[in-house]
Amino acid sequence: MKKFTSLLLAGVAILGLAACSNNSSSSKDEKKDTGTHKFEAKNGTIDIPNKLDKIVIQNYSDEAVALGQNVVGTDSWSFANPHLPKEAKDKIKDMGAPMNAEKIAEEKPDLIVTMDKDQVANYEKIAKTVLVDYNDKALKDMDSRLEYFAKMFQAEDKKKEFLKAFDATAKKETARLTDKGIDPSKSTVAIIELNANKIYSYGDNFARGGQTLIRGLGFEQSKEMKEITDGDGWKEVNVESLANLSADYIFIDYPETDKAQYEALTKNPVWQKIKAVQDKKVVQIDYNQVYYFGGPIATEKLLPVYVDAILDQTKK
User: Fold this and answer.
1) Alpha-carbon span 182 to 310, nearest angstrom
2) Where is the Fe/B12 periplasmic-binding domain (predicted)?
3) Which segment of 24-28, 76-80, 101-105 scores lowest on mean pLDDT?
């Protein structure tokens, strides 16, 4: 009987130790979740919570959603993104442009990400605030932006998961072109937008499908496009400056209000002599799908859109 009692007490003691061990592990996990990590931002070293429940982010809501973050607010420009999944979009509120501090405070975010240095002091009264610079080389393209924000959010696994799915989709969509005899790796492109009676040309890193064409489908940049990519990302041009445009394909978008401008452009003798125009390789793209939307989710969603447009235009 004494032996049994001793064994019973020993068992209870072991269970007690195990419980203490589990409680200790849980405490450590909870401590880790409620801790912070340091991130080097434009406004200094920021202690960012390891566990982020709510984020308000200017411009880069697409990147944050792609990395599995719960975005509850963004600026008006990013709010218009038609490519975000419905379940994510339904949680996001329009914070205005610039983002309104009172509206942000109502959402009680854990983190605010902004490009507006003049608002940092106001936002810091609400939550930890990270200032980013749109022109930072660390934000130059889809991959670098995902890397940047994956470090900010500690979301490396989500980044790898997204890129794996993206590359699979890109491979499938590129194959649709190569199957029709179009080899993107041997074709150069240029991006043009008509807006308010002006003509703009874009690089690969200023939305308008640039990353979809270059990073996704593997097209090469024309020398003119490369110069813009390496510069400010966009440039106002005129018809005469496009006369010797070397691109094999021109991708053009414009709002419906500028349709007359496009029709006039197509009748311009200078335009008619451009290489891609003569080869019937001018591809029209829906302005509402590509304007300002250059995040990773938008880039992926636009892959089949661009392939369909190319095949339709070239009648392949």
Assistant:
1) 9
2) 54-314
3) 24-28
pLDDT of residue 314: 82
Reported as type and span, the H/E element at residue 187 is none
Alpha-carbon span 295 to 58, nearest angstrom: 12
CA distance 200 to 3: 89
How far lies 44's CA from each of 25, 35, 39, 120, 138, in Å?
Answer: 33, 19, 8, 11, 16
Instruction: Write down the pLDDT at residue 316.
Output: 58
Backbone region of residue 296 per phi and psi (left: phi > 0; alpha: psi in -120 to 50; beta: other values): alpha
- Distance CA(201)–CA(186), nearest Å, equals 21
CA nearest neighbour of 218 among 170, 270, 256 = 170
Tokens 């509850």 correspond to 72
Cross-strand pairs, 189: 221, 249
pLDDT tens track for 172-223? 999 999 999 999 999 999 999 999 999 999 999 999 999 999 999 999 999 9
Say if residue 16's pLDDT is above 50: no
Q: Which fold has domain 36-154?
A: Rossmann fold (3.40.50)
Which CATH architecture group holds 181-314? 3-Layer(aba) Sandwich (3.40)
Inter-axis angle of helices 296-314 and 156-178, nearest 10: 0
Backbone angles phi, psi at 37, to 5 degrees: -130, 155
Q: Parallel, antiparallel, or unpaired for β 282-284 and 234-237?
A: unpaired
Let me know how long the chain is: 316
257 DSSP assignment: G
Give me the residue label for tokens 């002599």: 273
CB within 8 Å of 132: residues ≥ 6 apart: 41, 42, 60, 113, 114, 115, 139, 148
pLDDT, residue 106, reads 98
Q: What angle do CA 276, 281, 283 make, to 5 degrees?
A: 120
The DSSP H or E segment spanning 189 is strand 188-195
259: tokens are 């349709």
The residues of the chain that CATH labels 3.40.50.1980 are 36-154, 181-314
